[in-house]
Amino acid sequence: MHENAKTPGMARPVSARARAYGAQNYPRIIQDAVVAVRMARGQGIGATLRHARTVALARVHFRVIDKNLQRQFPHTVLGETPLDGLALSGARQDEAVDATPYSPVPSKTFHWAIGGLPIDHRQFAFIDIGSGRGYALHLARAYPFRRLIGVEFARELHLQARDNLAANATRDAPQVELRHESALETALPPGPTLFYLFSPFGGKVMRAFIERIEQSLIADPRPVIVVYVNPIHDRLFARPGVAAIAPARRQRRLLRWLSPFDARIHAWTHTRAVATSDTARHR
User: Fold this and answer.
1) How many domains does the chain divide into?
2) What is the CATH number of the domain that holds 114?
3) pLDDT (tens digit, 9 = 90+) per residue, 10-44?
4) 196 in a structural domain
5) How many CB atoms are closer than 10 A to CB 126?
6) Distance (Å, rounded) from C-alpha 42 to C-alpha 261?
């Protein structure tokens, strides 16, 4: 594992699922088995099988697709990083408690969700909420977004993202604006905006963040899209003025059958004309 610039004081990565089921003190080789047994007892066989599928697909994606790419960074992006003990900028107490560990999105999941969107990417600012060590922002450089922004409230991860993106910038790579700020305090960009969320926080903060978006739309009506990967709290987007949209058919099928994580896409009604205008080209 490429960890030549590990930040002092950062905890050894432990699966959030292992923590949730009290398996973090077991050897890593049997943590999955302990989690599976305890999950089956508490949530049933269906939930256990879904979890096993996610774990298996995530490992396949890593070994076959992402392993070499993720090792190109000066600071490792491998595994989960809990936020315990990190310096958090401007975070309210509930935001710190509600935050999830950082982990890199499988690159294919990202590309199937972002590349399959029925939009003109050139019109949109891309803003990664909970940008961690910058892996998703690195992937987003493949698209002609008019602006790239990463928001990360953990200072250690923010600084590592700066190094990672600088080390992997080609001569014509777009600039990335990195902010060491809270998602509930950062300024939301004007103009058409795509918010990318890889399950960065729990339901309480997600609700507050959605309300921030809606407040910004009162002052600045504009197309807004949220791409939500691993959409645990997707039900919070079920509100007036928000419509679910789908990626192109091919990417939709790939996400359904081959991605470790689902991706849900939501557009405020201001975006519906933008989204539907390009839909025919993707079918």
Assistant:
1) 1
2) 3.40.50.150
3) 333 445 666 665 666 767 657 666 666 665 676 77
4) yes
5) 26
6) 22
